[in-house]
Amino acid sequence: VHQSKMEFFCKLGYGKQDICKVLENLGQEALEDDVLKELIRMGSKPQALEDQAQPSQVKLVARGSCSTSPGLRWLGEDESDSSDSLRPIVIDGSNVAMSHGNKEVFSCWGIQLAVDWFRERGHTYIKVFVPLWRKEPPRPDSPIADQHILEELEKQSILVYTPSRKVKGKRVVCYDDRYIVKVAYEKDGVIVSNDHYRDLQNENPEWKWFIEQRLLMYSFVSNRFMPPDDPLGRHGPTLSNFLSKKPVLPEKKWQSCPYGKKCTYGNKCKFYHPERQHQAQISVADELRAKTKAPLSQGREEERCQCSP
Description:
Shape: flat
Low-confidence stretches: 55-82
Strand order of the largest sheet: 5-3-1-8-9
Helix content: 40-55%
Largest sheet: 5 strands, parallel
Structural class: alpha/beta
């Protein structure tokens, strides 16, 4: 009886010492419910609960260690996944599909190319908005290519259909652009489209700023999805910083002076002089003036000393 009860409560995760104490107090013939109540009253906890209650200790890794264990992290390193530092992506499905189809065919393959490009970069939140009527069979006036891709993306919870219905034979379509901008704005993400959404910019001043700063345009080059390396212009952020929540500032690189040691600009020179690292960078003219003033001032002090009684 003692052995069976020990095995039973050990399986529950309680320590052998606590179990022995309770059995000595209550007796070997005590009921299991009474033993369990006594263990709880003593404050004993199963091993699994104790492990959860204890704070996880930070493990230190020696600098230069080649260990690839995923549990070892640097002290102070953010334990969040790298995908958390990337912005959510909201794709204008109609714009991307028509752009890939040369504005003649709704090419679903273009949507797949765009989704795959962001997946390869590590983005986990990707949403594509397409009107619901695109699920209908293609017609001569609105051809659709590779329509099965829409079904696959919908199963993966990537594609979202915007509502549409028919009223007295006429199709009533909700404005999908509003869905795109609203979701991207709430998620603080990036809009992938070649549309400027001027009507929505005029509608809401906050959306106007957001569209201007978070619109990522693109091109298709030989079935290759290619966004620009400078989404906001030559003087704006790089593509990686544009798609990241925590942009990395580039290191400031100094260009060496073309005149080298012959440069006479001194501290006014905008270029880098490695030979002047530990010297006061003053111009040659100022240095000559300082040298000429020094002996003149010394001579005047000597004359004053001689004239004084």
